[in-house]
Amino acid sequence: MSSESICKWLHRALSECHRRFPSGPGRDTTCRHLHHTLAMCIVSLVCQEESNAIQALCSSNGIALKRSQCQHVHLSLFVCLSASQRIYFGRLAFEWTKTRSRSALHLCEWTKTRGN
């Protein structure tokens, strides 16, 4: 299964989760994992090289050089996501709006927390 197919499958699963559970804290808790996983899937699909670099360089604390490299790849990911935002995310915006998915919000939160 391709990465794009996996992301589409996750999106369908998230849509189903939103359909099955009423809006509120219960749905937020129940669907949280799908929100996060879909966001990560989209990041790795859109910016695969940067995503892989972050996993390799930022998975644990290390020497100053590794921390510096980690900060550099976070900047690279930010630039990649910014450049891709209009192209890729534009195609998904309608679907996210339709299902009231907060994957984009989780994606932004993930990049912020990883950037620190």
What does the model show?
This protein is an all-alpha fold and 116 residues long. It has one domain. The chain has helices at residues 3-20, 25-46, 48-57, 64-99, 103-115. The termini are far apart. The protein contains five helices and no strands.
Please give the alpha-carbon distance between the first and last residues: 33 Å
Rg computed from alpha carbons, rounded to a whole number of angstroms: 15 Å
Q: What is the number of helical segments per DSSP (H or I, 4+ residues)? A: 5
* Class from secondary-structure proportions: mainly alpha
User: What is the overall silhouette?
Assistant: elongated
Low-confidence stretches: 94-105, 108-112
H and E order: HHHHH
Average of pLDDT: 77
Relative strand content: under 5%
Oligomer designation: single chain
Provide the number of structural domains. Answer: 1
- The portion of residues assigned to helices is over 70%
Q: Strand tally, please?
A: 0
Biggest sheet details: none
Any descriptors?
single chain, 116 residues, mainly alpha, 5 helices, 85% helix, COX assembly mitochondrial protein
SSE blueprint and pairings:
Layout: H1 3-20, H2 25-46, H3 48-57, H4 64-99, H5 103-115
Helix pairs in contact: 1-2, 2-3, 2-5, 3-4, 4-5
Protein name: COX assembly mitochondrial protein
Organism: Acacia crassicarpa (northern wattle)
Quick recap:
This protein is mainly α and 116 residues long. It has helices at residues 3-20, 25-46, 48-57, 64-99, 103-115.
